[in-house]
C-alpha cells in the first residue's frame, strides 16, 4: 500500500469564525452538511453515511480556529482538519481543509470536499 499524500483546499466563507466553527466542531453542526448522522461521546465520533458508520476522534482543536480528526482506521500521521483563517488585507474568513489520499485519488477526494462544502455554504447562507 502506498503512502497517502496530504492535500489542502481553501474556501472563502462569508460568516464569522465563531459561527463557522460550530458547523465544523460540533455533532449538530457536522450533521447539517458533513454526514447523515453524527454522534460524539467521550471523544469518540461516529459519522454515518447511507447506513455505514465510520469512527473518528478529535486529536487537537482550538476554539474558533481549527479542529483535527483522525479516523480509527488510519495511521497516526493521517487526519482531516478544518482550519479557520483570516486574510490580513481584506479580513476575509477562509476555510482550509486538510486531508490525506492516495495520489491517484486526490482529484476525486477534492471533488467530494467541494460538494460537501457547497452544502455547508448553503446551510450558512453563502
Automatic annotation (TrEMBL):
It holds the Pfam family START_2. InterPro entries: START-like_dom_sf (IPR023393), START_2 (IPR045736). It comes from the Bacteria. Residues 1-125 form the START-like domain. This is ATPase.
